[in-house]
Design brief:
Layout: H1 2-17, E1 22-26, H2 27-30, E2 45-46, E3 56-62, E4 67-76, E5 81-85, E6 97-101, E7 106-111, E8 116-123, E9 126-136, E10 139-150, E11 153-155, E12 158-160, E13 163-175, E14 178-182, H3 186-192, H4 197-206, H5 214-226
Parallel strand pairs: 2-13
Antiparallel strand pairs: 1-6, 3-4, 3-7, 4-5, 5-6, 7-8, 8-9, 9-10, 10-13, 11-12, 13-14
């Protein structure tokens, strides 16, 4: 019963926060999502529902010109939201509050580490904050970082004592009026370049590139533009 009450409280909090340009919330209320779905067999939760394990330094540019520079941030893919961690003056410890950015006014997020760019998209009826791997006019190659909740499995045939947030990377190609999910493997390489997919496969093999790594797939897409 207590868990159900907490869940309802968190859902109400999310609803009230949505649609505001920025709102202060208690981080623990949002992070309750790491407990939701937890089974009696589970010893706890591994991973995080956010894109990054820890907040990253970066900049946020809004469509109305507002700019947040060198802030601590993270991305919550389930709600397509960006979180900014409240910073306290030196010596005052660490705050547990976050600011939630209105994704409808989000232009881009630039993560300092790796100079990675994220933007708000609607692709194939999915609202997402996707990582832009390539962009030239109407042509975009985007990585969507999904966090899939996997409950603990403690059965005769399976021993997984922890609930886990599993990283699932999906790729999308947006070009003019075309929106296509780029599958992993040969099918995906053919989506990127139907004429040169074999050369791309060799390029990936020679350079030990991984479909599960967006930085690697950016190199693959750039290579396709060269061929």
């Amino acid at each position: 019963m207590k868990r159900a009450v907490l869940l309802i409280f968190c859902l109400i909090t999310c609803f009230l926060a949505h649609g505001q340009e920025r709102s202060d919330v208690n981080e623990n209320e949002y992070l309750f999502v790491t407990e939701y779905g937890k089974t009696a067999k589970s010893k706890g939760v591994k991973g995080t529902p956010f894109v990054f394990e820890e907040m990253k330094k970066g900049d946020i540019l809004m469509s109305d010109g507002k700019f947040y520079q060198n802030v601590n941030l993270n991305i919550y893919p389930k709600k397509a939201q960006v979180f900014i961690g409240e910073e306290l003056p030196e010596g005052e410890g660490k705050s547990n509050k976050t600011i939630v950015i209105d994704n409808r006014k989000l232009d881009r997020v630039v993560v300092e580490e790796g100079n990675r760019v994220f933007r708000y998209f609607k692709i194939k009826d999915i609202y997402m904050i996707g990582e832009v791997l390539f962009e030239d006019g109407d042509e975009k190659f985007v990585a969507y970082h999904e966090k899939r909740f996997m409950p603990a499995q403690v059965e005769a045939y399976s021993i997984n004592a922890y609930d886990v947030f599993q990283d699932v990377i999906k790729y999308y190609l947006v070009k003019e009026d075309r929106e296509e999910e780029v599958k992993k493997g040969t099918a995906g390489l053919k989506s990127i370049s139907s004429d040169n997919w074999k050369a791309l496969r060799s390029y990936m093999k020679d350079n030990k590139l991984d479909f599960g790594n967006p930085a690697d797939m950016r190199l693959v897409y750039l290579k396709a533009k060269e061929l």
